[in-house]
From TrEMBL, chain A:
Residues 15-105 form the YCII-related domain. It comes from Actinoplanes campanulatus. Belongs to the YciI family. It holds the Pfam family YCII. This is YCII-related domain-containing protein. InterPro entries: Dimeric_a/b-barrel, YCII.
UniProtKB/TrEMBL annotation, chain B:
Belongs to the sigma-70 factor family. ECF subfamily. Residues 161-251 form the DUF6596 domain. GO terms for molecular function: DNA binding; sigma factor activity. One of its GO terms (biological process) is DNA-templated transcription initiation. This is RNA polymerase sigma factor (Sigma-70 family). The lineage of its organism: Bacteria, Bacillati, Actinomycetota, Actinomycetes, Micromonosporales. It comes from Actinoplanes campanulatus. Residues 8-70 form the RNA polymerase sigma-70 region domain. Residues 98-148 form the RNA polymerase sigma factor 70 region 4 type domain.
Length: 135, 379
């Protein structure tokens, strides 16, 4: 099995096909979208492939060390930051093909007019454990 | 009684339930319940007959579940009496369980999870922790696996090779958790070796023991990976090595060579050398030739190139490498190693950095990055 991270972006991803901002959907369309996402996660628990998920607020703070005895420096958010992650899901699957298949299904979540958003999701493999036998 | 001793009773207890007429999936749930109950109760109140206790509790759980199922379906179940176990021995039951849990209709991950639970007696939570997934996910993976094999007859003969692949996966790709999966894989392979006389089972057991013997030496004080040539060989477990070599020799004497025996032979030759410099690389190359003949695996030929480099010099190793596909995992790492041996540090440094960027696990990536850094300092 291999673990993959599915990343959903607020911005930074190429534009989706059904590119209408959520506030311009009907309330029913929003509910249908949320139900789809939640069903998707539940289905992955059923197939034994779900690891975890989190949705993230659009706000964020940059933090860095500022030297011995000094509090960390905070800054941002920086308007020029192109990439803004909206949330993630970690899955544990048999193959890369399966990970692509699942990402494709998640990208089909309904949006405006109940039609799939065709949103671009980023798929990133996680490092595996070191195998015992290598030679 | 240790948790391992408790778990070793699992296949026997499960076999008895199945022979009494319980279907595998329900019996397996009942045995799991009994094991969890035993872990809770036994520390304060150990039973005189642990296996009898488990059979009684598991059978009661099975009947309770069957009755509520029956009530739900509003029909009678004729499972009330305790029929005597059938004529098959518990050794056969154990073997059948291995076959069932490694059935070819299962994906490798499902077969691993089912084997660890139904044969190994681990709890769902322990398996979930070991593979870093939530307990609910692992529970579903196991119930789906049980549904997949629900139509497989319990007494159907299976293929030892599929069982060995599952046990190899448990040993080789085991994550670290509360349960030592490498040790568990060894325990399960030992148990299998006691139920079936097959040289490859012994070959795999020897392979595991020989690698397990080096485990402490594989990690440095900084937690980093220590390659074979640099390991402190006084930290190798000589008892495990001696046992592995003995088991391997007996298997090889049967003259039915297989890939696990060949891999174990290579591990034994490494174990045999008091210092890395005394390794019998010529013999190791011969074993890689056998292994390549048995498996035709490109990974084997990649490892063979390293051995050729040691036996006949870096140039010969690079020549062996030149026939191989450059997109193979670890190709760049092997090329880096051979080019450094050949004196081309600059190229080796570049290749090590390239290999680090392609590594699929952190221990290897960090090790390769350190190799690149070491060479850069010398340039």
């Amino acid at each position: 099995m291999a673990k993959y991270l599915l990343l959903k972006h607020y911005r930074g991803a190429p534009a989706p096909v059904n590119d209408v901002p959520m506030e311009k959907w009907t309330p029913e369309e929003i509910s249908a979208h949320i139900a789809y996402m939640s069903d998707f996660a539940n289905r992955l628990v059923e197939t034994g492939e779900f690891v975890s998920e989190q949705a993230l607020l659009p706000e964020g703070t940059w933090v860095r060390y500022d030297g011995e005895g000094r509090p960390p420096v905070t800054d941002g958010p920086f308007a020029e930051t192109k990439d803004l992650i909206a949330g993630f899901m970690i899955i544990d699957v048999d193959s890369h093909e399966r990970a692509v298949e699942l990402a494709g299904e998640l990208s089909a979540a309904p949006g405006k007019d109940g039609k799939p958003i065709h949103e671009w999701l980023e798929l990133r493999p996680c490092f595996a454990e070191m195998p015992t036998i290598t030679e | 009684m240790t948790p391992e001793e408790l778990r070793s009773l699992t296949p026997g207890v499960l076999g008895i339930l199945v022979r009494r007429g319980a279907d595998f999936a329900a019996a397996e749930d009942a045995v799991q319940d009994a094991l969890v109950e035993a872990l809770r109760v036994w520390p304060d109140d150990p039973p005189r007959d642990p296996k009898g206790w488990l059979v009684t509790v598991a059978w009661r759980r099975f009947l309770d579940a069957a009755r509520s199922e029956a009530a739900r379906r509003r029909r009678e179940e004729a499972a009330d009496q305790e029929p005597p176990p059938g004529p098959a021995s518990s050794v056969d039951d154990t073997l059948q369980l291995y076959f069932l849990c490694a059935h070819p209709s299962l994906t490798p991950a499902s077969a691993v999870a089912l084997t660890l639970r139904a044969v190994g007696g681990l709890t769902t939570r322990q398996i979930a922790e070991a593979y870093l997934v939530p307990e609910a996910t692992m529970a579903q993976r196991i119930s789906r696996a049980k549904r997949t094999v629900s139509r497989v007859r319990f007494d159907q003969p299976g293929d030892v090779a599929t069982v060995l692949r599952v046990l190899y996966l448990v040993f080789n790709e085991g994550y670290t958790g509360d349960v030592d999966l490498a040790a568990e894989a060894i325990r399960l392979t030992r148990q299998l070796a006691a139920t079936i006389d097959h040289p490859e089972v012994h070959g795999l057991l020897a392979l595991m023991l020989l690698h397990h013997a080096r485990r402490d030496a594989r990690t440095g004080d900084d937690g980093g990976l220590v390659p074979l040539a640099e390991q402190d060989r006084t930290r190798w477990d000589t008892a495990l090595i001696a046992e592995g070599v003995l088991i391997l020799q007996a298997a090889l004497a049967r003259d039915r060579l297989g890939e696990f025996q060949a891999q174990a032979a290579i591990a034994a030759l490494h174990a045999d050398a008091p210092h890395a410099g005394e390794t019998d690389w010529v013999q190791i190359v011969e074993w890689y030739d056998e292994l390549a003949r048995l498996t035709d695996s490109p990974v084997v030929r990649l490892n063979r190139a390293v051995a050729v480099g040691e036996a006949d010099g870096a140039r010969a190793g690079l020549a062996a490498l030149s026939d191989l596909d450059q997109t193979l995992p670890r190709y760049a790492a092997v090329a880096a190693y051979l080019h450094e041996r050949d004196g081309d540090r600059k190229r080796a440094a570049r290749l090590y950095a390239e290999a680090a960027a392609q590594a699929s696990n952190l221990a290897e990536r960090d090790h390769l990055t350190r190799q690149a850094a070491r060479l850069h300092r010398q340039l």
